[in-house]
Amino acid sequence: MQPGNETQLSEFLLLGFSEDPALQPLICGLFLFMYLVTVAGNLLIILAILSDPHLHTPMYFFLSNLSLVDVCFTSTTVPKMLVNIQTHSKAITHAGCITQMFFFILFVGLDDLLLAVMAYDRFVAICHPLHYTVIMKPQLCVQLVLVCWVISVLHALSHSLMVLQLSFCVHLEIPHFFCELIQVIHTACSDTILNDVLLFLAAMLLGGGPLAGILYSYSKIVSSICAIPSAQGKHKAFSTCVSHLSVVSLFYGTGIGVYLSAGAAPSSASTATASVMYTVVTPMLNPFIYSLRSTDIKRALKGILGQKL
């Protein structure tokens, strides 16, 4: 790009899903509904865990943190999109875009790392049951969550600072409903090789690392379950992992699906639509997965709501 095509950036334009005015109320209503369900569902899980002493265990401590992150994760993108639809505006300021991008990277990284920590918790519980309370002390649980936060903050900060070094062109349209990192980088006029290298390294370390840890944990868990002689014992051990395994499959399945769909059909609209699965749908479904599979959560929710679920 020629220097004359660069500008002192003031705002981006988020194109969203469709420019058809007739579809805007439907999109707004659908996302408002999903957002309210996500927030209410995850907050209920947190409240249930806090209110029931029987749920003050490492597994539910990590689950409450995951629910909190899911609320923040969804709140990073959906409210701004709803405001833009209601005000008939597609604009987001440069500072607002960088801020949204920072928190999106932060919370998606936290989701990823917390799922790995939860897999480790299940690994210790099933493979080393006699040492579980000794290993998974409250201090260690807090330390693991703090490490997740520190790594995620540093990861999000590194990407945000790198984007701040870029120069942008006159046409600053982002074909998405939020400031997604790759889409923001693609709008830059300046060389983005360092950003691309950082993206690749982060994907390998913070994407592949936790996934490898989860796969390793479950390989050991499966081996331990197979070694249990009774069918009842196998079922009881496996049942403690089903909810987490479902959430992991949903998180990684939808995330990988987004990038596969983007590669197979690089249409901006298709990529934005696919992104809804892991940015909105997955956080919305997580409380249902845990509440339906966990009798402890069901009991706590009954106590809170005062009715049968």
- The number of distinct helices, counting runs of at least 4 residues, comes to 10
Structural class: mainly alpha
What is the H/E string?
EHHEHHHEHHHHH
> What is the CA-based Rg, rounded?
21 Å
What oligomeric state do these chains adopt?
Answer: single chain
User: Mean pLDDT, as a whole number?
Assistant: 86
Strand order of the largest sheet: 2-1-3
Strand segment count: 3
Termini separation: 60 Å
Strand content: under 5%
Largest sheet: 3 strands, mixed
Specify the helix fraction band. Answer: over 70%
Unreliable segments of 5+ consecutive residues: 1-7
Principal-axis shape equals globular
Search tags:
309 residues, mainly alpha, disordered N terminus, 3% strand, 10 helices, 3-stranded mixed beta sheet
Give the topology.
Layout: E1 11-14, H1 24-51, H2 58-86, E2 91-93, H3 94-127, H4 132-135, H5 138-164, E3 173-174, H6 181-186, H7 193-227, H8 231-264, H9 268-293, H10 295-305
Parallel strand pairs: 1-3
Antiparallel strand pairs: 1-2
Helix pairs in contact: 1-2, 1-9, 1-10, 2-3, 2-9, 3-5, 3-7, 3-8, 5-7, 7-8, 8-9, 9-10
Notes on the structure:
The structure is a single chain. The chain is globular, with a radius of gyration of 21 Å. Strands 2-1-3 form a 3-stranded mixed beta sheet. It starts with 10 loop residues before the first strand and ends with a helix. Mean pLDDT is 86; it is low at 1-7. The chain has helices spanning 24-51, 58-86, 94-127, 132-135, 138-164, 181-186, 193-227, 231-264, 268-293, 295-305; strands at residues 11-14, 91-93, 173-174. It is mainly α. It has 10 helices and 3 strands. The relative contact order is 0.15. The longest helix is centred in the C-terminal third of the chain and has 35 residues, at 193-227. Helix 3 runs antiparallel to helix 5 (138-164) and helix 8 packs antiparallel against helix 9.
